[in-house]
Amino acid sequence: MQPRDLSDHVAYEAGRGIEEVARELGRDPSEFIKLASNENPHGPSPAAAVAIRETASSVSSYPKAAHADLTTAVADRWGVGDEQVWLANGGDGAIDYLHRAALEPADDVLVPTPGFAYYGMSSRFHHGDVREYELSRAADFAQEADAVLDVYDGERVIWLTSPHNPTGSTMSLTEIECLAEGTDEDTLVAVDEAYGEFADRDSAVALIEGRDGFDARDDVAVLRTFSKAYGLAGVRLGYAVVPAEWADAYARVNTPFAASELACRAGLAAIDDDEHVRRTVETARESRAYMRENIDTHVWESEGNFVLAAVGDATAVSDEMQERGVIVRDCSSFGLPGCVRITCGTEEETERAVETLNDVLDDLDVEPESTGESEDPDAEVADP
Ligand SMILES: *Cc1c(COP(=O)(O)O)cnc(C)c1O
């Protein structure tokens, strides 16, 4: 016997790890730095690391109190009711929960291209189909309601990523409101704010709750994660903030105890560790400014903890950088075969990445793309 027909399903391509690369190349792991998965260069919140150690002896129990306490802490942070917070196994788990709650078989979701692969994968798991709207490279991947509405055809869920992975662009709350306003009553606008902490933008939770001059809406949900700014990618903790009207659904769709005891305890410690987040955000801002300034090819403006650089042949450039000890993300699997994404590292890591990339561009004779904002945007051609 066989599993069901999975020919439409594709495997998720994660950024490559140091151990994996070192083993493959027969080299010592200490020769490498990894700037491929938007991880936190300062590690986890120290308070979270302590909490994880202290929790070790109680992991024989199912997480009940910790789950409830973290839900309340997250709800307090956003000023929403506890039942509006759907804790999950990473932000990815929250994507699944929103799909479980929203999709009937053969419902469609509308996702950005280039974009994060898991929206489409998750929709297919839940027997949904996937359509795409394009973020145009010629427009620097700007995110506007009209461009999405042009291709919108009654999909049940529309995914927005703000800041967007891998381009770093954002969408204003006014544009998100326009989009929600312009779509059917039964279309959920899901705003993935995995990188929200790094951006100079307010959260779309304001649209759900009707704050800052917006009317409250029941067709917007927000996704957040502890993986990036909080440095807890390895514990797998994220959540959705949903309208009060959606509150009942969680109990019916969640995998029991989806956020582990370790994850909940780590999250409780991390959510109060503002200093760690502040330092992380500051490092990312400095790093992305440095990369934009010093990389010898076009680097897009980014509100995330990464930048996207136009390098011609992304696979050749990322392979060669890896050979020289710097692991970055080849964006071919995101639908951008001419670009690499580089995570903001510490100052030292960032400098090494920039120097290595510039050397590789030089050695591979990559035609540099315009680097300045003031230059003619038409000069920015498609990948050779
Ligand atoms: C990292 C990321 C997530 C969530 O990742 P988790 O580790 O599952 O929390 C969600 N969306 C985007 C765009 C991301 O880059």
TrEMBL record:
Pathway entry: Amino-acid biosynthesis; L-histidine biosynthesis; L-histidine from 5-phospho-alpha-D-ribose 1-diphosphate: step 7/9
The protein's required cofactors: pyridoxal 5'-phosphate
Pfam families tied to this protein: Aminotran_1_2 (PF00155)
Domain of life: Archaea
GO molecular function: histidinol-phosphate transaminase activity; pyridoxal phosphate binding
Disordered, as annotated region: 360-384
Enzyme class (EC, first level): transferase
UniProt key word Iron: no
Residues with PTM N6-(pyridoxal phosphate)lysine: K228
Residue intervals of the Aminotransferase class I/classII large domain: 31-357
HAMAP family linked to this entry: HisC_aminotrans_2
Family: Belongs to the class-II pyridoxal-phosphate-dependent aminotransferase family. Histidinol-phosphate aminotransferase subfamily.
Protein name: Histidinol-phosphate aminotransferase
Organism field: Natrinema altunense (strain JCM 12890 / CGMCC 1.3731 / AJ2)
